[in-house]
Amino acid sequence: MKTNFLFTLLTAMLFLACGTQNNDSKSTGVSEYKSTGRPAQALTYNEVVPMLKYYDDMKRDTLRKTTLNGGNDTRVNFYRLEDLKAYIAYVEKLAMDKNINITGINIISAAYPQDKKYGLKQGYQTLIFMPATTINGKKNVSFDPLYSGKESPKLFAEILYSKFKYSFRGYHPNTAEKKMRSASFLQSPGDMESSAANRTHISPPY
User: Which of 32-36, 89-93, 109-113, 127-131 has the weakest average pLDDT?
Assistant: First the structure.
């Protein structure tokens, strides 16, 4: 799909937007930040240009095959600064209430299916935000604080598998994990809320 450029750029943007959290905000779950200077995630133009060129040369034409009417795939995902801050504050509060430490945000590649309900977005790539934490020593694991228990993160991949029979990145539960699931959690999902975020402006097609 996309090169690592989008992920690197969005990660840098999140750090630039947020900086370092004030101690006062931790008690309320509201994210208010002060900049501490240029973050390590910020790129130089000498790093940016080769990634942009490689995308043009090696990715762009291939991805045209997947979009509506063969147009260029999404190149820019726009997020309002206030939306980024509001989302971070929201998931921090959810996790804080469960005594779970959010270590970051995973930015996951996805694409809109070829379905009329998506309009011009059909076939175009998008990005999904998901909170991350450390589980059993494994870092940067996507989880959903909405469905997590106290100090017990619910894996994003587990929800996808148990509720929708979708194996995210090859996830498949072992026997012990299957036994731990409650019957209520395995019922039909309906229109199930999540801690994921998207709702972005993508260009192309807009």
Answer: 32-36
